[in-house]
Fold:
Amino acid sequence: MSALWPVLWPLLTATVMGLLWRHPVWHRWIGVGACFAHVFIAVHLMGEANGRGPVVTTLGGWKPPFGIVFVADRLGAAMVLVTAVIGFAIALSSVRGIDARREAFGYHPLVQTLLGGVCGAFLTGDFFNLYVWFEVMLVSSFVLLALGGERRQMAGALHYVSYNLVASATFLIGMGTLYGSIGTLNMADVAQRLPQANPAVAAVVVGLLTVAFGVKAAVFPLFTWLPASYHTPPTLVSALFAGLLTKVGVYALIRTTTLLGPDSAPWLPGVLVVVAVLSMGFGVLGAVAQDDFRRVLSLHIVSQIGYMLFGLALMTPLALAGAVYYVLHHILVKTNLFLIGGLAKRMCGTERLAGMGGLYRRSPGLSLLFLVPALSLAGLPPLSGFWAKLFVVRAGIEADAWAGVAVALACGLLTLFSMLKLWNEAFWKPAPQEPTEPLWTARRKWMAVPVALLAIGTVGFGLFAGPLFAFSERVAEELLRPETYVQAVLGGSK
Amino acid sequence: MRSLILSVGARAVSPLLLVFSFHCLLRGHNEPGGGFIGGLVAGSAVALWVLADGVERFTVQAVPGGEGQTVRSGSSALRGGMVDPVTVMSVGLLTMLASGFVGLALGREDFLTGAWWTVNTPLGSAKLGTPLLFDLGVYFVVVGVVVAFVFELSQEAPQ
Structure:
């Protein structure tokens, strides 16, 4: 199968929705159907990439390094699969969860183009093309963020847009330098040629790329756009962003670090360790200080990204496998928490923790659904977050990175603390005023379906940690031998 | 305020612009031009028309509180028989995607691989290929976008 299908499919869906522009109600079901099919496409690609090695597609038949290639190795295919699952959950929620006005302005097609952009970023094997998919993703996300035009949405979008534009410019400057010095932008070709280039130029290129991807991944100290914007749009949009967008940055960091890092920038892991530790710490401290449901969750993203980067920075097989497992687990859990946040907001009429409460007494079911991802995020066994943290921390101990391990464990405790804070405030304590309307309307019941599906996914991720970790180890093995990737892309031409 | 001179002039110039836009589209393969430029020129023909005669030529004023108006995306209802700019854009996108699949369907290497045919006409032979189809798609997308912008921007602001 062509590695291009997971990218083309959402874009095709968006186009079909465009033809039916005046019938937004149809968009809902087209979206659900298309996302369902997308999952199968992703599973199929995953099977091929896992069984026979990287699937390489050359656009227009132009051979690399001249043409643009799409490469689905295990990491790319796994990311696409999780993206498709999240897309399906969001599409399902969107059937009842978004207001008519936003639908009329193209909410559903925008979600599809966003998914297309994210999948494109995961699969492309060309730096400039990566930039293009970043832009596809960002333009869709700009509009999704501002759609509806509420005052605080505009304030959030302003932070988001300006910060991300600077990051895009940095990325572009980095690529200009890269192309000017070695004359190629194909990732595999760059991996081969950059070590022979002037070391100073290589350092500049890798540095600029790292900063650009660092902004997208929201690492310390480049994360400030995230808590400023993620709590402003409708919850479904927040959930989509929280699950996928920062992880595209993390993916790009993993890709460049493993492909270019060892030969061209030996200093990079050292920098990443410091950044990772600071992100873990500052993210979680920020989260503890917040008193708004979604703001707490947004700042936890920053902290969790720190764990992933810690695994990446150690660069041992175990650490990388842990980082990959962490990314996959985190996408499911974080999206789910935001979706639950949205339901809780509808039920309590506010997102401020002081005004929430009483949800446990009124709906034990939802409380249980909240506890699964919340405790998973905090790292309680046997849920997926426990294994993710265990792998990363163990890799840290093996690599004698004691400071990092200490911070990771302390942040785990603080994460548990702030999840319990959410629990106490929103679910456990009595409601500040006795609610009058019924809790479970038809719409809310519908929106609980994807939440339940993702929760089952999280539990499965924890129960089948063994096979999934074995898979992550194979991903790490592939990442640590970039020759495989280079060989698959360039074939016999070198 | 309407200008009679501009109105009459637009009537003469707009068709010329449309023909010229098609010329741009066709020469684009080897010389400056192409779908993007052609689409912009065609869009400017419509823009000129709107400037000269007002957008009422193309749209029906939105009735405040009228059916569907409150949730509809900005542009008010188009006059009967007019094609929605968003439809034009979508058709363009579909054309672009289709041009990619032609090569694939013919068993060429991959998505977007070009396929060429020679067409013999009494005036001489011409080579037609999927890149032209792709360019045609771009043309439609750009026309759709420009026309949508022009229509939106020339609406009265809602009270």
Notes: Strands of chain B lie at 116-121, 124-129. The mean pLDDT of chain B is 81.
